[in-house]
Amino acid sequence: NAGVTQTPKFQVLKTGQSMTLQCAQDMNHEYMSWYRQDPGMGLRLIHYSVGAGITDQGEVPNGYNVSRSTTEDFPLRLLSAAPSQTSVYFCASSYSWDSSTKQYFGPGTRLTVT
Amino acid sequence: GENVEQHPSTLSVQEGDSAVIKCTYSDSASNYFPWYKQELGKRPQLIIDIRSNVGEKKDQRIAVTLNKTAKHFSLHITETQPEDSAVYFCAASIQEYGNKLVFGAGTILRVKS
Distance (Å, rounded) from C-alpha B25 to C-alpha B102? Predict the structure, then answer.
């Protein structure tokens, strides 16, 4: 199993551009989520999905959209990039949406918005 | 909502000494408390977790303790080694809200040889 994969690893955008961060898992995990990591702030939940066709907002959802058309994929879309979205983005998945199920993280995407 | 505070923000220890990182949480309904280790430029890796019906859990040199009354939990690393140097994050999640983790701000652990 490849586990949780993310592409690209690095990306530079200009303010106002849009792009999609890709996340995929091959473990048949029900739950997937996106976090952003900023210095000194830990990881903050952006959006999450408890199964195909079901998504919901996390702690910091503004400026991001998600969809979950398949169990495997959970892309994160930046609609109009802003410098405040410069961050490292991690996708995570777990077997179940149950609160005590272990979550596994992808390798991350480092995004810079100029 | 849930708030998780983590202390200290940085911790330096001598190789072979013990390290303790503490976290407090605000919502008494929290029931799952994982700890993640993140090396520079890498992804967070789950190192140990504990559920609210357990007071202590140990895995070799790593242990986690939970005090539900005081709403705090701690990570203990014994016989520290240089490869333990990393950023450690605590987190909490609430049964009613599914698997949404709220993270602490992290602790930079440096083990000096």
Answer: 9
B102:A59 CB<8 A = yes
Q: What are phi and psi of A78, to 5 degrees?
A: -100, 120
- Within 8 A by CB and 6+ apart from A12, the residues are A111, A112, A113, A114
Q: Give the closest-approach CA distance of A114 to chain B in angstroms.
A: 21
Q: pLDDT by residue (tens digit) across B25-64?
A: 999 989 999 999 999 999 999 999 999 888 999 999 999 9
pLDDT over threshold 90, residue A40? no
Edge to edge, what strands does the sheet with A64-66 contain? A4-7, A19-25, A76-78, A64-66
Chain A, chain B: beta-carbon pairs less than 8 Å apart:
73
